[in-house]
Design goal:
Distance between the termini: 41 Å
Shape: globular
Mean pLDDT: 89
CATH class of the largest domain: Alpha Beta
Radius of gyration: 17 Å
Number of domains: 2
Largest sheet: 6 strands, mixed
CATH superfamily of the largest domain: P-loop containing nucleotide triphosphate hydrolases
CATH topology of the largest domain: Rossmann fold
CATH architecture of the largest domain: 3-Layer(aba) Sandwich
Strand content: 25-35%
Structural class: alpha/beta
Number of helices: 12
Order of helices and strands: EEEHEEHEHHHHHEHEHEEHHH
Low-confidence stretches: 234-247
Number of strands: 10
Oligomer: single chain
Length: 247
């Protein structure tokens, strides 16, 4: 049984349909990526899974249960965590308090940062008393991921975690995501435009264009030169090439 199974999903805002007829699956412990240009419906897809955007058509099953019309807090409690684009930390709160807030989705109360989770983010041990707004962009991204892991999710939804980060930090993010899937047993649905991160983490994925899936397959298939030129922003593809050197 798939951990996440989406069939014919349709959703949007008001009378506008953004996503239509999207079908995808995520297996337990699997990392699956969703690629596509800005504005094609990737974030709307994640927000629909979370119950933050109303499901207008199709179905969403998680861990064998229909969650398509549940409230977002109930969906989170069942084991879906969300790392939003832009991190959305509480800037005036300390790193410790940001992490403590992550446990509410699971436990319904504030709990101290999990030492096992902090093992993945050694720099955060030194920053626990520091306010989140004073951290670097890479450190803030680590807090955003660690905060969600505090809830011990079965499925982690990550929206553009590479945004605004330098290549070495992106590599760190990829390392953490792979470790989360392997060691903690969480599956990951990764929305990205950075091909380097997608290829270093995911085994397969989907390409979205115009709010629908236009290709699905192995990570090599969906990141082929032809697919990238057609459906992924050229500037991000070029940047990835530059990071890897000429070829």
């Amino acid at each position: 049984m798939s951990l996440l199974s989406i069939q014919g999903l349709g959703s949007g805002y008001g009378g506008d349909v953004i996503c239509h007829d999207i079908s995808l699956v995520v297996e337990p412990r699997e990392i699956v990526c969703v690629l596509g240009r800005n504005g094609v419906g990737k974030t709307t897809l994640l927000r629909t899974i979370l119950g933050k955007v109303a499901l207008q058509a199709g179905s969403i099953e998680f861990d064998g249960r229909d969650i398509g019309h549940l409230a977002s807090d109930k969906i989170a409690h069942r084991g879906i965590g969300y790392v939003p684009q832009g991190r959305q930390l509480f800037g005036k709160l300390s790193v410790r308090d940001n992490l403590r807030l992550g446990s509410v989705a699971r436990a319904g109360r504030l709990e101290e940062p999990d030492e096992a989770i902090l093992d993945y983010f050694p720099v955060l041990r030194e920053r626990l008393g520091q306010t989140a707004e004073t951290l670097s962009g890479g450190e803030q991204q680590m807090v955003a991921i660690a905060r969600v892991l505090q809830a011990k999710p079965k499925l982690l939804l990550c929206d553009e975690p590479s945004e605004g980060l330098q290549p070495s930090i992106i590599d760190d993010v990829g390392r953490v995501l792979r470790a989360v899937a392997k060691d903690l047993g969480a599956a990951i649905l990764l929305v990205e435009q950075n091909i380097r991160l997608a290829k270093s983490t995911a085994s397969r994925g989907y390409v979205i264009e115009g709010g629908t899936v236009v290709s699905a397959g192995s990570i090599d298939e969906i990141t082929s030169e032809e697919m990238l030129h057609q459906h992924v922003a050229f500037s991000r593809m070029r940047a990835t090439r530059d990071e890897n050197g000429p070829r």
